[in-house]
Amino acid sequence: MPASRDRSDAADGPHPALANEARRLEPSKGEHVGELLGAKVRGSFLASGPDECLRSFLFVAEPLSGLQNDCSPHNLETRYRIFAFRTNSCRMREFSSSKQETGLIRNVQLLRALAAIAVVFSHAMLGLQMPVSLGVFGVDIFFVISGFIISYIVSVDASQFELKRIIRIVPFYWTATLAVFLVSSFWPSLVQQRFAGWLTLATSLFFIPHDRADGSTYPILLLGWTLNYEMYFYGIVAVSMRISRQWATLIAAASILTIMTVTDVIAPKSPAEAFYGDPIVVEFLYGILIFYAFGRYSAKQETRRPSGLSFACCVVAIIAACILLPVNQYFYRNIAGYDLIRLRFLFLGVPAAVLVASAVMLERRFSIAVRSRKLLMLGDASYVIYLTHLYLIFAVLRLVFKGAYHGPQIAQWLLVFLFVLASIPVAIVVHLRFEQPVISALRRRFLHRPPPIGFVTPATREAAPGMSVV
């Protein structure tokens, strides 16, 4: 790597490659200009050293974003990432270290895996016609996590938000929906579904609740009802970003509450018309609230040492949430009436929110996070686990037990655990062999991102001849 030029020599002006690029670009290029200059900045850093590159970087960034030299960073890489994400200077205070950018969601990944496994437990018990079916609360955990993660994404990198969400959700969901549609057309007993019809197929593929002949609003892929809510939430957030990117999630929260209230007042007759008025959508708002509350708490506690009392409170909160979730689910599913069931966002949503908030607090405040790659992979594969396990259970019950199993209770519990254990490797294989490659290919094709630090491109070679991959 070439040595840095002398400081006096560097003081004559910014790096030539960056200076030329700054003259060529117009300030109207806007917030994505970081993608155009990213390779030049990294090339200058590797070729000429951090001091000169920082001066050149400020020279380029200042006219485009209002960035001032007197707020020079301690970490050039962090400053570049801020610039590449968004040149709007009012957002830059959100990033004080690269740790805040990358170390946020390890425990959330673990919760995603546990939530998916909980739902598998629930449906395995339901399929075996056991008197108790616990684990539905996994859906509530998913909704709270979704509100939190979307708030985080919008605050960090909201570019191409809609396209990113579509690429993440649609490919596997459409594939699974079409597969179930074909199987139900020729062998309905295998998936315990009748031929749904073309209208149901269309509404299922586009996440639109639709009144079916049996009085339900389930899409073809039965667990897709939760994705109808997810896409509804994503859509409202996307529209809210058109109004104000800074306050997008808060505008989305107000919109969700307004739609829910209006729907409840109108009291629509069909389930499809009342779908978005279900109070379960409040659980997305819990995630948004956690994100903003945690941001305020972190800002106040950043310079203070973590206390033993706050750690004990986190542990107690997690234990209490893990107890309340199954207990409350049993209460509202087996004892409560319909009117009380509409309070699911309180019975299950609040403990789920406490669990998510405590898990994030343990990681960010006390540096206690899951490190196992296998557990993190389970979080990555949780989407596939969630969508596929029900049909694995249906197929085994149909092919092996001719539709139902009526053995002793201990054998039923053994089958429940076997279903859970079987659903995990199947989902991981599907995730690694199908979902992940397809998503990666679509992201490469449709998303525009700056290459990672040290990635050699023609632009970096031009800015820094002789640079090698680091």
Shape: globular
How much helicity do the residues have?
55-70%
* Poorly predicted parts: 1-15, 25-104, 451-470
Helix tally equals 22
Keywords, separated by commas or semicolons:
470 residues; mainly alpha; 2 domains; 22 helices; globular; disordered C terminus
Task: Report on this structure.
By secondary structure, the protein is mainly alpha-helical. It folds into two domains: 7-98, no CATH class; 103-446, no CATH class. The chain is built from 22 helices and no strands. The chain has helices at 7-10, 16-24, 33-48, 50-65, 76-85, 98-102, 106-127, 137-156, 161-186, 188-191, 198-205, 225-243, 248-266, 282-301, 308-334, 338-341, 344-347, 349-366, 373-380, 382-399, 409-446, 458-463. The longest helix is centred in the C-terminal third of the chain and has 38 residues, at 409-446. The chain is globular.
Short summary of the structure?
This protein is mostly helical.
Q: How are the SSEs ordered, and which strands pair?
A:
Blueprint: H1 7-10, H2 16-24, H3 33-48, H4 50-65, H5 76-85, H6 98-102, H7 106-127, H8 137-156, H9 161-186, H10 188-191, H11 198-205, H12 225-243, H13 248-266, H14 282-301, H15 308-334, H16 338-341, H17 344-347, H18 349-366, H19 373-380, H20 382-399, H21 409-446, H22 458-463
